[in-house]
Write a structure and sequence with these properties.
With 302 residues, this protein is mainly α. Helices cover 72% and strands 0% of the residues. Helix 5 packs across helix 7 and helix 8 crosses helix 11.
Length: 302
């Protein structure tokens, strides 16, 4: 391989390594957050682990007058009771993505911020996962950090492969939209068996990503995407085949997120847990976008 070809490959390998580090971080976050088949932040809340239909316990038998007064009262809405609803969860999720898009615009023009932002985002993700109670400020800070990273890496890839960001965004919207539609219609649901398979597959993907990243760092392979650029069956790069598999993993991760939200709303979780739902969806959607971006880059690579 000539010097010019090696330079071009090295130039493409830099954003590829950034995606590799981000993919590894994202995998660790998702694997950690699924160890109990759902985000531990949800399972740490009694509202998500106990029935919301628990009977009212009286210290003494209510009188006929007290019962009449109770029946005469108008029913309080979930919003009035400060409970989690689909509406306020959507509002929180939209706000988080607005923050992400705003900082992504900054990262697009200042790509040097993407690596520090990825590290900060990883730390904030771990803090948000293990925090006993969701913090809107920390979750929005995570959105801001991830926006800088996503914007930076997107800008770099757009320079190398013009039009790839638009394709990745459309692909991400398509996967999220189809998954949400199938879940809302009851066509797909999470199950214990599927979740176990999901966790095993996540471990396998993390191992592959670590090996691939190590080979790239130590110069064992000079391909832009390491083993991902190696031709597989029918000449299709392994990165594309694995990318399709990972997109399916991300789709099932979305199903788990939707299940958590459904459970929270049905069990009357406090409204603040809507922020945790927004955080979970954001982690999954960012991971999905980066994987689609990587797969498209491999398809368009030399």
């Amino acid at each position: 391989m000539g010097v010019g070809a090696r330079s071009a490959s090295a130039g493409k390998a830099v954003p590829s390594l950034a995606l590799g580090f981000a993919g590894r971080f994202r995998g660790e976050i998702l694997y950690t957050s699924r160890m109990a088949t759902s985000n531990p932040a949800f399972s740490n809340s009694p509202a998500f682990t106990q029935s919301a239909t628990k009977a009212i316990q009286w210290t003494q038998e209510p009188s006929a007058q007290q019962l009449d007064e109770l029946y005469a009262r108008s029913s309080a809405t979930p919003e009035q009771m400060d409970r989690m609803t689909y509406e306020n969860t959507i509002q929180k999720t939209v706000l988080a993505f607005v923050v992400l898009l705003a900082t992504a615009a900054v990262g697009w023009f200042i790509p040097a911020l993407m690596i520090p932002a990825a590290i900060v985002g990883f730390v904030l993700a771990l803090v948000n996962i293990f925090k006993k109670k969701p913090s809107p400020a920390l979750i929005l800070a995570y959105s801001a950090a991830q926006g800088l990273f996503v914007g930076g890496i997107s800008g770099v890839f757009e320079q190398i492969y013009p039009g790839i960001v638009t394709q990745a965004v459309i692909g991400t919207f398509a996967v999220v939209g189809v998954t949400l539609a199938l879940f809302a219609s009851g066509k797909i649901r999470a199950s214990k068996r599927a979740t176990k398979i999901f966790l095993v597959a996540m471990v396998g993907y993390m191992v592959f990503s670590l090996i691939n990243m190590g080979l790239m760092i130590f110069g064992v392979t000079d391909d832009a995407f390491g083993l991902g650029s190696t031709p597989g069956p029918f000449g299709i790069p392994w990165g594309v085949l694995i990318g399709v598999f990972v997109i399916l993993l991300a789709s099932y991760s979305l199903v788990l997120d939707f299940e958590s939200i459904k459970t929270g709303v049905q069990r009357g979780a406090p409204a603040v847990w809507g922020w945790q739902a927004a955080f979970g969806i954001m982690v999954t959607v960012i991971w999905l976008y980066l994987e689609i971006l990587r797969m498209l880059a491999i398809l368009r690579g030399d």
